[in-house]
Amino acid sequence: MRIGELSRLTGVSPRLLRYYEEQGLLTSDRIGRGHRRYADDAPVVVGHVRALLAAGLTTSVIREVLPCVQGPGPELEHCAAPTLSDQLRSLDARISTLQNARTALARLLATTERPT
Fold this sequence. Notes:
Elements: H1 3-10, H2 14-22, E1 29-31, E2 35-37, H3 42-54, H4 59-65, E3 69-70, E4 75-76, H5 81-112
Antiparallel strand pairs: 1-2, 3-4
């Protein structure tokens, strides 16, 4: 299928589809005049990419775990577990840092509410 059809089927802009391809997340063949032609499973692959992006993964991490993705779900094989565990630990650490910053900011804000 061509990029326009893939865009219509997935709701992802052609520009973003080209970006996915540049990042190694999606592949195409070139046909006459350099037009892209995507495989029949491209909508499923784009769905996987979108689901992994929604989980907060970067394109480099997605490129690493994409071979471990199966089915339309997506369902991940065990080979993705180490990378996803690392990402989850990193996210937990960032959440903790943000919670600490929020607490500190709330304390500072509270000092502005004291009558003078």
